[in-house]
Amino acid sequence: MLRRSLSTYDILTVKDVVEAYESRGEFQSVFLTPLVYVLFFTFFASAALTHVPIETMFPSQNGLMAALVTSGSDTLTADSKMKFKNIQSQADVFPWFIDTFVPSVFVTTDYNNVSIPVDQVGRIAAFQKVVGAVEIKAYVAPKIPCDVSASLSPIYKSCHDWANAEQETPWYLNPKSPAQEIIDWFQEVKANHTLVSDANTALHINVATYNGELNLLCITALQIKFQPGGYVDTRSKMTSMPLDPYGNDPSGGLMDLITGMFFLTTVGMDYRKIARHRKQKKAVVWTKWRMVTWMSLASVLTFYVFWIILSVLVAQAQLKNEIIAMENPAFDFEHNTALAIVYFIDIMDRMKTMGTIMIILRLSAMAAMCLLMFRILGSLRFHPGLNVVMATLTKSLRSLAPFFFVFVVCLSAFVMSGCLLFGDSTKAFSTIGMSYVTVVNMLFGQFNPDMVLDVNYYTAVVWYWSAMVVLSLVLFNMLLAIVIESFQKVHNSSDKRTAPYMAAISELLRVEGLWLWPWSRRDMIRLGRAVHADELRDVSAAAIAKHLALSDDQARLLLAKVRAFKRVRQLEHHISSNQEFVFMTITCNLDCVVIEMGTAELTIDDVRLAYASRGDFVMIFLSPLFNMFFFLVFAACALDHTPIQAMFPSENGLANIVAKAGTDAVTTVTTTKFSNMATHHDVFPWLTNTFVPYTFVTTDYNGRNLSTPDLRRVNYVHRILGAVEFKTYSAPPRPCDVVDGPLGAMYAQCHDFDSPVLNSAFYIDAGADPETATAVISAKQASGAWLDASTANLHINLATFNGELNLLCLISLRVTFQPGGFLQPIYQTKCMPSDPYGTSYLAAPLDACVLVLWITTIWMELREWCRDHRRRTGQPPKPRFCTLWRAVTWLSVVSVAVYFAIWTALCMAVYSPTFAADLTALETGASSSQPQLLLVDIMTRLKAMGYLTLSVRIAGMVSLGLLMFRTLSSLRFHPHLNMVTATLTASLHSLVPFCCIFVICLTAFVTSGCLLFGERLLQFSTISRSIITVVNMLFGQFDLAAIFAVDYNIAFTWYWCAMVILFLVLFNMLLAIVLAAFDHVRTVTATKIAPYMAAITELRRLAGPMLWPWNHPHMMQLGSFAESANTGLSTAVTSASIAKQLCVTDVDADIVLRKTRAFLAIMHILRDSNLNDDDVDGEDFVGEGEVAPTSVDVSELNQRLDMMEARLEAKLAAMSVNMAALIARIDAKL
């Protein structure tokens, strides 16, 4: 403190010169450390890219991918009919093997149709030599009895244990064998039913290759996973590694050497700092930057440890000898199969190990480069301008902890509701983990709304818009506000420091020169040694000149250099620490509040209030935990009742077969796909060539006839219940609305497509063979009356049961014929558990837990209402109890009740004896006299259960959203966590006029978009679709090329106008509203943080980390005494009165008094946060240019003035003490 005061007047002491002399190394280190880390990062990145040769790996892996991992978007040729990515059922496996895989791997002729030389046989994509053999592994699930309900057990008698699949003996195919020989082998195993069966869970195909052109080894792993719902998931993975790590690029060794030098330099620099701290007898502090340094060193070391292991494995002679032995023309694969398998297994194991090490190598390199990047930024803290970025990041991280907690709560609500709504149909939401990834990517603009809009249009719109508004527009804008606020504080602080820093640098530059290093001069070294050895005790110019035998001018120059150097070091240290001012400010505020708390007077009424507030204190802190637990338990319950992980493979396996899409593989069997139908002429080709062969199946994928239990199944796992229902709806005829004249004569008869009526309904038995079903469809076509010009809708309903997953499914195919000739095919799949409580052991416990939490919530709210009613008896009829957050609580209670009411109705429908009797009669044929009525009744029940299932999921989504907001509302007691909820409510108050303007502008562009593009584009064909399209456009989800194809000039004019007005202007206004609300809330909250933290600190110091003082008997005695005293007694409670009343010492009485005072202060703040939300909910929010309300509560104003006076007196007293101490130190020093 003294040196800092004296430095203001440019007074140098001997100690100052000694410190300047000893800080020479630190000065060099400050400027050289960033350069060292930059070079370290550069050379390590170069070494990593040399050891992981991406430029050679890319063409190698993509060449293999183009040959083996083909997809539907690739070119279709006669040799590649079935693509790997298009495999959708077990029946597609052998066509892919025979028509695509074998011609790509077992190649005998080149692209010129010339026979390949013997030494080039076994190559993929001309350059990838197959090493050893092609490995095929099959995994089979053992058969077990089905765990289904009694009513469905006759339908599905045999199931498989998919969780305990067993690996069969692998097959190894010689890459030198002719393609026809391999095809014959596949035909043989197909006939023997040994490779693919209904028990298959997966097929793994492993191909090891060597590319001599690039000197790379590569493993290609193809996996075909068969899921119990009939859904097939194809995956591929490729891993490459260099065969000669240092031979390909000699510069790799040089880069390793330089990286090692910088590694040792960094270790030495940090160890030197630690040694200096120990020498100075200072504790070694592991700051965040030191931890980043050592983590980066550990990552670099990990990289090189695994690189050495990989180099050793690659250099082993055994691997190369085995590869050479198998490639020797003299090696006969057929006669030495056992030896070849041993060689191949060893080669594959080694290559898989090297592939794993290569992945670890790349991950450790990524971690090391990121950590070195942060270390470079951290080393720039000495500069006031370069320090702004890092200071902003670190300051933002301190403020973002409560924000991230609230963000995770909101994110989890939308993730779980998205999984609940769309997980059964969309892979992106099929698991909780994938849902998290999808929703976060959605916030970054990487999301296709069509994949959820196709599931349930309006539900998806509500979910998507709600998620984008809450997570993106509100929370992301709050994140931006936090970062901007942190940047402004850091920037303002940096501006104050830049001027003195640049002045000090300029002074050092003036007296020393461009190198800014005065200690290179011999005279400076002599001066430093003299004062360091205590030979020179006077650092005046005369004393220096005399001791060093210099002139007075030279001595004065030395002093100027020391003074400038010292000033630069002080400023650098101050800028790098960046904590002193903030810490002093916070400490002063807390000290002032503690002084105020310590001098505040307590009365008997205050003690009574503190004693009565014990329960409120506990409830305030436990409510967030209770609400969070309620949210998590209900989410688990909803996801258990809607088994997404079972419904996804079931629904998609069924839809991939029945409702094939245009991106599927094109084969001779499927000429027309469901989604590709565009005119009336496409309906019958689709029915006869696609729908019937895949629905009415009598042979399996191996070509053998199915047994009786396996008949009536779609995709071999979905058992059709009864029959397939076909319904057509016709538009009744009406007179055409045309003018008289030639047009009226040309079009005399029209149809009322808005009011279609049922025309016909028939059923095709599930046991019918394809020929019978095709004959029925052909007869309908020949009649000419089933589908004609008046047909408005064709509905095909198919009810199935999957015993493997215990699911009932209903898939509805709907073809809508519109009067303009436009045909729109739509399908919808709904699955529901056939035994909700029989297949899940957690269903009943979770329901019971939710019921307990639900009843507890109602009891807590009613208890609070009764207490509030008793407190406000005789007061105005608008109690404080009726608030926005209370409404959210009761709405969440009602929504949970609605959810379980619908769930109960669904369970009653599933367990209905009538439904079970109908299924039994349908299976046994007991009601053969009226089978159609039985089928109609079953279809009606299944449709009703489908609607109930959808209602359950929507109710679950609403309940999760309300429980999320209820959890946020319970966080209002915390000054930091309250900022999010307060900003939300404050924004809502200000958004009413904005929404009016936004709706007007949106309506204009919605209507104009419908007028301009509605006749060509489906997304603008109606007003409702146009609204959804324009709003999605503002979220970045829009197909711009579609409107450009309609009319280019009009399209870009409309699009630019819409984006400028709706996005650039109005969305930025929304951002300004959120930022203004956040700034207002932050300002109001800032006044509560200091007393809150002071009271918490005081209570923690006195009562421990549990913050509960009432477990001490003295506190309970004081509370009992206050409760029994006369109400309204204004006698002051002092430590002396407590000691006398409780018969304790003065010290214990003082502790009891301070505990009570701190507890009461906390309760006042908590009650103010929970009950008096008017301060931050926007009712007193004064915008720019507005006038604040003038009504003032005099008593409240006097109370605040007294508080301000006490604070001012405390601050003045503290300043007086500090000034007296400072003057005493200066006097003693002088």
From TrEMBL:
One of its GO terms (molecular function) is monoatomic ion channel activity. It is found in: Membrane. Residues 258-493 form the Ion transport domain. Pfam families: Ion_trans, PKD_channel. Its main location: membrane. Keywords: Membrane, Transmembrane, Transmembrane helix. GO terms for cellular component: membrane. It is a multi-pass membrane protein. Residues 958-1080 form the Polycystin cation channel PKD1/PKD2 domain. The chain crosses the membrane at residues 30-52, 292-317, 359-380, 400-422, 429-447, 462-484, 617-636, 883-902, 947-968, 988-1014, 1026-1046, 1052-1078. The keyword Nucleotide-binding does not apply. InterPro entries: Ion_trans_dom, PKD1_2_channel, Polycystin. This is Polycystin cation channel PKD1/PKD2 domain-containing protein.
